[in-house]
Structure formats: structure tokens, C-alpha cells
Amino acid sequence: MDKPVIVALDFADDFECINFLNQFPKSEKLFLKIGLEMFCQFGYPFVHNLRERGYNIFLDLKLHDIPNTVKRTCEMIAKWDVQMLTVHASGGAEMIAAAKSGLAGSKTKLLAVTQLTSLGQNELENELQIPLKSADYVAHLAKLAFDNGADGVISSALEVPMIKDATSSDFLCITPGIRPKSAQVGDQKRVATPAQARTLGSDGIVVGRPITQAQDGHQAYMNICKEWNK
């Protein structure tokens, strides 16, 4: 798998989204992340439309339910020809294995979310009552995902070396919370630049607002690709 720059779509409507995508030459085979907000609004037809246009799709639904429900959901998604799908690693071993089983026969990579980038040590201790240090908790969930058939995890770039050590060098680490040097940090606490993520061993980065809210989205994307591929 190539190491992609994945563009997180965060638009209020599909028309605005297509206008954004029209900035890019047709030869630019973008990798696009569709999250809960856009998926709930536009559903499978939107995913299908973007696949028909030749885009790769990271469907970031963060599935988290009983194993049978997750398996049946993954069996449906397996028919959609998306490249990546997320579940929550905290759903447990049986749920992760069920998700992988549901995707059997498809090329969809199963990625497990370890710890949301909006959660820091304070939230982990005081809100979720998890006694582990953040790094240890992430490593534990990554190993759980690895042992139960996931292809990789979503993690902070800062955690990639630790995750690779706990699992395998081939275990994918896809990294959100990426901001070019010129951008605001926003609502994410564990962030890195594209160059830092590459150095740390990320297998792909997810970038949203620094591209989608830029005056020239295509140029912003190209600048981030340049920094990522140095």
C-alpha cells in the first residue's frame, strides 16, 4: 500500500464537497475520508458516487457494538469497495475479530481506533477512569487489534514507533491530528506535522481543515504532499 495523504471531507453538503473536489485535476487520484457526519447525511450513494469518480475511500465510521451487529454491518460494507474502515479497539477482541470476519473476501483494510486524538491523559484518568498512562493504553489496544486480525490502527504520529514495536512493522498506522507548521492546532491535542509523522513511521496521514478550508485547496494539498514525501 502506498503511503497516502488522506483528505478528511468535512463539508455541510455534497454540492460544496464536489465543488472542492473539482479544484483537483482528474489525474489526481485522491484518498478521501468520509466520517460519521457526512455519512449520516448522504449515506452509501455518496460513497458510491466518489468511488465511481475513481477516488479511494477511507470510511471512518468507528463501529462499536456487539460482535454480531458489527460483523453483519461489515458484511454489507465489504460489498462497497472501500479501501479502509474503522472500528473502536475498545469494543474488544471478539468484536474486532467479528469485523474482520465480516470483511472477508474484500480488499477493505480494517483499522482500529485506539485513543481519540481529542483525549489526553487528563480525560483518560478523570473521565474514563482508565488507570494506565495514555501511551500504555494505546499500546495495549493496538496489540489487541493486531492479535485479532485488524490490519492497522488509527493513532497519533507520536505513538507510531511504540505501536510498531508492540505489533509489527507491517501493521498500518494511519495518523490524524496532522497540521502543517502554519496551521492552528484546533481541537486535537496530540498533533504532528507531515514531516514529523513520516519520520516517526506513519503509513498514511489524515488532513482535513488545512486543506478543505484553504483558499486554494489543491495547492494546500500539494504543499502537504511535498512535506510528507520529502
Automatic annotation (TrEMBL):
<feature type="binding site">
    <location>
        <begin position="60"/>
        <end position="69"/>
    </location>
    <ligand>
        <name>substrate</name>
    </ligand>
</feature>
<feature type="active site" description="Proton donor">
    <location>
        <position position="62"/>
    </location>
</feature>
<dbReference type="GO" id="GO:0004590">
    <property type="term" value="F:orotidine-5'-phosphate decarboxylase activity"/>
</dbReference>
<feature type="active site" description="For OMPdecase activity">
    <location>
        <position position="62"/>
    </location>
</feature>
<feature type="binding site">
    <location>
        <position position="10"/>
    </location>
    <ligand>
        <name>substrate</name>
    </ligand>
</feature>
<dbReference type="InterPro" id="IPR011060">
    <property type="entry name" value="RibuloseP-bd_barrel"/>
</dbReference>
<dbReference type="InterPro" id="IPR014732">
    <property type="entry name" value="OMPdecase"/>
</dbReference>
<comment type="function">
    <text>Catalyzes the decarboxylation of orotidine 5'-monophosphate (OMP) to uridine 5'-monophosphate (UMP).</text>
</comment>
<dbReference type="GO" id="GO:0006207">
    <property type="term" value="P:'de novo' pyrimidine nucleobase biosynthetic process"/>
</dbReference>
<dbReference type="InterPro" id="IPR013785">
    <property type="entry name" value="Aldolase_TIM"/>
</dbReference>
<keyword id="KW-0456">Lyase</keyword>
<dbReference type="InterPro" id="IPR018089">
    <property type="entry name" value="OMPdecase_AS"/>
</dbReference>
<dbReference type="GO" id="GO:0005829">
    <property type="term" value="C:cytosol"/>
</dbReference>
<keyword id="KW-0210">Decarboxylase</keyword>
<feature type="active site" description="For OMPdecase activity">
    <location>
        <position position="60"/>
    </location>
</feature>
<dbReference type="GO" id="GO:0044205">
    <property type="term" value="P:'de novo' UMP biosynthetic process"/>
</dbReference>
<feature type="active site" description="For OMPdecase activity">
    <location>
        <position position="65"/>
    </location>
</feature>
<comment type="subunit">
    <text>Homodimer.</text>
</comment>
<comment type="similarity">
    <text>Belongs to the OMP decarboxylase family. Type 1 subfamily.</text>
</comment>
<keyword id="KW-0665">Pyrimidine biosynthesis</keyword>
<dbReference type="InterPro" id="IPR047596">
    <property type="entry name" value="OMPdecase_bac"/>
</dbReference>
<feature type="binding site">
    <location>
        <position position="208"/>
    </location>
    <ligand>
        <name>substrate</name>
    </ligand>
</feature>
<feature type="binding site">
    <location>
        <position position="117"/>
    </location>
    <ligand>
        <name>substrate</name>
    </ligand>
</feature>
<feature type="binding site">
    <location>
        <position position="188"/>
    </location>
    <ligand>
        <name>substrate</name>
    </ligand>
</feature>
<dbReference type="InterPro" id="IPR001754">
    <property type="entry name" value="OMPdeCOase_dom"/>
</dbReference>
<feature type="binding site">
    <location>
        <position position="209"/>
    </location>
    <ligand>
        <name>substrate</name>
    </ligand>
</feature>
<protein>
    <recommendedName>
        <fullName>Orotidine 5'-phosphate decarboxylase</fullName>
        <ecNumber>4.1.1.23</ecNumber>
    </recommendedName>
</protein>
<comment type="pathway">
    <text>Pyrimidine metabolism; UMP biosynthesis via de novo pathway; UMP from orotate: step 2/2.</text>
</comment>
<dbReference type="Pfam" id="PF00215">
    <property type="entry name" value="OMPdecase"/>
</dbReference>
<feature type="domain" description="Orotidine 5'-phosphate decarboxylase">
    <location>
        <begin position="4"/>
        <end position="224"/>
    </location>
</feature>
<feature type="binding site">
    <location>
        <position position="33"/>
    </location>
    <ligand>
        <name>substrate</name>
    </ligand>
</feature>
<feature type="binding site">
    <location>
        <position position="179"/>
    </location>
    <ligand>
        <name>substrate</name>
    </ligand>
</feature>
